[in-house]
Every structure is written in structure tokens, then in C-alpha cells.
Design a protein that fits this description.
Keywords: ATP-binding, Ligase, Magnesium, Metal-binding, Nucleotide-binding. The chain contains 16 helices and 17 strands. By secondary structure, it is α/β, with parallel strands linked by helices. It has two domains: about 5-305, UDP-N-acetylmuramoyl-L-alanine:D-glutamate ligase; about 315-450, Protein-Tyrosine Phosphatase, Chain A (Alpha-Beta Complex), CATH 3.90.190.20. The two termini are about 40 Å apart.
């Protein structure tokens, strides 16, 4: 379909996407990755000359990918990206030079995909999942635009993820790998790491978060030896100094024999320091071995300073008291949130709006959260009918680790948010929301609509 440029056609694309039945198709008797790779070939992948950077890991993919995208764009390169999950609408998952794809571009790419599927007898509604459809739409867009770089974030795992269908890749960034999605990826850290790291192609360059857990380092080393990969650790970036002033942080690092001062870290949360090291390590590797990307130091600093990720320790308000959302939906994410809260708000009264999906290790998350001092919990139900954990069930888990006086149950996220804003409105209070991104989305809407 050519010259798609109207809102109605974009809305038609959304209507078709929303009619795709929920769920994944991993269990079907078909090699999903090979099937999707064939479709990408039909879309004309051979015309794409972009360098490809992929990200896999349990936490930090979005933030690390955003910093990398930003410094590439700041250096004058064209960059297309894919990240998930979206908060409000699907086109958030596809970016061009750091900005969300335009409605007309999304519609054109989607209907180009639909035409290719029809030409080859593939039914979108019965043979493609909604996540796969989003990624294939992105590929149709990338192939037409042919940017200098693609920065692709794996949605779930790595080896079996739709993003692994891309026929070639130059770099893999491994962010911190931990326990999550155990029903799909494996019930121990080694199995989970293998599922993620097996997406690495022969000869591809790996940049890995530091410190990874020992089991993860072992898996990375084994696969790299088997496939001839060069592995660079983010430990090459040493944090020399971190200065904080309110929500502003200025960092000094050493990379090799070069000290870099006055790096302004735009992303909030103490855990972003590890992601910062991974991004700077990527900058160092690209600058050393990739002739396409001689990235100036000024571009690196600009890219880091301007990075912003909705829903990742995001301040929705600062006055009269902070209102913060953080989509910490697994044990590592929750512990990173706790570390930040204890460091920044230890002596303040806190209310934490909490909601999880039912397939998470909520018991461990709840146990860890209950260690927070001077904190009231409001348990609620995320907006996901298929996977939500009911507020009453989450309330019972909290009672295993804390007094009932600390826990309120308000099933509706908007009502839970309104209660928190009305009852914790003093200068010394802090309102936080965490757990599922399906909860974070509702909290953001409630705060903006108050």
C-alpha cells in the first residue's frame, strides 16, 4: 500500500492488530524463528545494509538501548529501534532517531507487511502473534528507511524471541541477567542465561554487563568459545565519582587510559549506573572496531544526558512531594528499586502502590519490599485480564511478611492512585508505584488526569 498518510488508516491498522488473539506461539509445532525469518526475507531484507545491535537480558535493556541510540543519533548517524513493552500504544515500540514512529509510517509499514503475508498465503490473525506482528511491522519500516544502525531489544529471552529472526547481527549487548519468566525460559539461572545468550551469532561481538552472576559469565564464555565471539565486559568502565544534587547526577569514569568527567546521567535510579557502564563500554567498542561509528565524546555525553525511559523510576511529580513510577516486575528489579528508595528516601514516609502479574515470583518480591521502613502498601490489580494477580491474592502474600495495618487493598489502580495522592500529600511523603507495567500505565494516566 502506497502513500498512507491519514489517521483513519492508522486506526484501521490498530483495529486489525487488536483483533489478533492474545498469547504467544512458542509451543506450536513450528520453528517460529525460521518462519519469521522467511517473512523478513519476503519483506526485502537483502536491501538492508544497516549495522545491527541487539540487546538481551532480564533488566536494563530499554535504558541501555536508549543511551546507545541517543549517542549514535547525536553523532549524526540514523538509527531505528525496537523496544517493548509499550505503555499506551503499539507504535511506541518502533523508533526513528529516538522518536516514536509517525502514525503514517506505522500504517504504511503495517499494510506493506499485510500485503506480503497475503501474497504468500499467511494469515496474520491465525498464524502471527501480536508481538510478532509488531516486530514484523518494524522490519518493514526498517527495510524501507535503511538506517545506519538498528538497535533491537529482545522481548522475551533471546534464542526463541521474534527479534532473533533478523537474518544477521553485528553486536549483542547483554544487560543484567537474572530470574524471570521461569515457566518459559527455565527454572534456574544457567538455563535462563543459555536461552538468552544462544541468540548470539557466530563471530558477533558481545558487550556484557558487569558484574554478571558467575553462572551467566560461564554461559557467555562457553558460547563465545563455541561461536568465535569477542567478549567485552562493562567492567572496562570504572566509576570514579558519582555526585548527586536532587535528581541530578554527575559521573566521572575511566575507560582504558582516558578519564571522562561531567557525564550527566539523565536516567533516575541507582541501578542505572550499571546500565551507564554498559552503554559507555558499547561506545568504546564501537569507536575502536567499527569504522562506521567514530562517535565523538560530546555525542556520548549528550546521548546519556538526554536519555529518558517512561515508567523506569520516572518522576511524574516533584511537588508537593515526589510521585514516582517504576516498572520493577521481577526480583532483581524490585531489589534495585529498594536500593534506590533506601538511598534517597530512607527518612521519609512512603506509600507504595503495588500490582503484579500472576506469573511472577511475587512472594520473593513481596518479602523484599516488606523490609522497607516507614512504608504503607496499597495492593491493586494490574490492567491485564489474562495474567493479572488479583489484589486480594497479593494482599494475602503481604500478610505473610508484615502487619495488616501496613497494607490496604484497592483493586482499581486509578482509585488506589487517588487514595495515595490524597492521603500522602505532605512535603515529607513519597508516593511510588511498582510492579507490572500494566499497573504503571494506569498510575501514569491517573496522575495526569487528576
Amino acid at each position: 500500500m502506497k502513500n498512507v498518510d491519514n489517521d483513519q488508516t492508522y486506526q484501521q491498522a490498530l483495529a486489525i492488530l487488536e483483533s489478533i488473539p492474545a498469547g504467544m506461539k512458542y509451543k506450536e509445532e513450528i520453528d517460529r524463528v525460521a518462519f519469521l525469518r522467511q517473512i523478513i526475507g519476503w519483506l526485502g531484507f537483502d536491501r538492508l545494509s544497516s549495522k545491527v545491535i541487539r540487546l538481551a537480558g532480564t533488566n536494563g535493556k530499554g535504558s541501555t538501548g536508549k543511551m546507545v541510540t541517543n549517542f549514535l543519533v547525536a553523532s549524526g548517524l540514523t538509527v531505528a529501534g525496537f523496544n517493548s513493552p509499550h505503555l499506551f500504544e503499539v507504535r511506541e515500540e518502533i523508533t526513528w532517531n529516538g522518536d516514536v514512529i509517525a502514525e503514517a509510517d506505522f500504517a504504511r509499514a503495517f499494510f506493506d507487511l499485510l500485503a506480503v503475508l497475503d501474497d504468500h498465503g499467511v494469515d496474520l490473525l491465525t498464524e502471527i502473534s501480536s508481538f510478532e506482528a509488531s516486530f514484523l511491522t518494524a522490519m518493514a519500516f526498517y527495510i524501507r528507511k535503511n538506517p545506519d544502525y538498528l538497535v533491537l531489544e529482545a522481548g522475551l529471552g533471546g534464542e526463541l524471541d521474534a527479534t532473533n529472526a533478523i537474518p544477521r547481527s553485528d553486536y549483542t549487548i547483554l544487560t543484567r541477567i537474572g530470574m524471570d519468566h521461569m515457566r518459559i525460559l527455565g527454572d534456574n539461572l544457567t538455563a535462563i542465561a543459555q536461552t538468552k545468550v544462544r541468540m548470539v551469532r557466530e563471530g558477533e561481538t558481545i558487550i556484557s554487563y558487569a558484574p554478571q552472576r558467575p553462572e551467566v559469565d560461564t554461559v557467555v564464555a562457553e558460547i563465545a568459545q563455541e561461536r568465535g565471539n569477542r567478549v567485552f565486559s562493562a567492567a572496562m568502565v570504572e566509576l570514579d565519582q558519582v555526585a548527586e544534587s536532587g535528581t541530578q547526577r554527575t559521573v566521572t569514569v575511566t575507560v582504558g587510559d582516558q578519564q571522562i568527567e561531567d557525564i550527566h546521567l539523565g536516567l533516575q535510579g541507582s541501578y542505572q549506573l550499571g546500565n551507564l557502564q554498559t552503554a559507555i563500554a558499547t561506545w568504546q567498542v564501537l569507536s575502536q572496531i567499527d569504522a562506521v561509528s567514530k562517535i565523538p565524546l560530546a555525542a556520548l555525553k549528550s546521548g546519556i544526558a538526554t536519555a529518558h525511559m517512561p515508567g523506569r523510576f520516572e518522576y511524574l511529580q516533584e511537588e508537593p512531594r515526589p510521585v514516582i513510577v517504576d516498572g520493577a516486575h521481577n526480583v532483581d528489579g524490585i531489589n534495585a528499586l529498594i536500593e534506590t528508595v533506601q538511598g534517597s528516601f530512607a527518612n521519609r514516609r512512603k506509600v507504595l502502590i503495588v500490582g503484579f502479574l500472576a506469573d511472577k515470583d511475587t512472594l520473593t518480591c513481596v518479602q523484599d519490599l516488606c523490609a522497607l521502613n516507614d512504608t504503607t502498601f496499597i495492593v491493586t490489580t494490574p490492567d491485564n485480564q489474562d495474567r493479572q494477580l488479583a489484589a486480594e491474592d497479593l494482599y494475602q502474600e503481604f500478610l505473610k511478611f508484615t502487619d495488616a495495618k501496613r497494607v490496604l487493598t484497592i483493586a482499581n489502580p486509578a482509585q488506589a492512585t487517588q487514595y495515595a495522592l490524597e492521603h500522602f500529600d505532605q512535603e515529607n511523603d513519597v508516593v511510588l508505584a511498582t510492579g507490572s507495567f500494566y499497573l504503571v500505565k494506569e498510575v501514569i494516566k491517573a496522575v495526569h488526569n487528576q
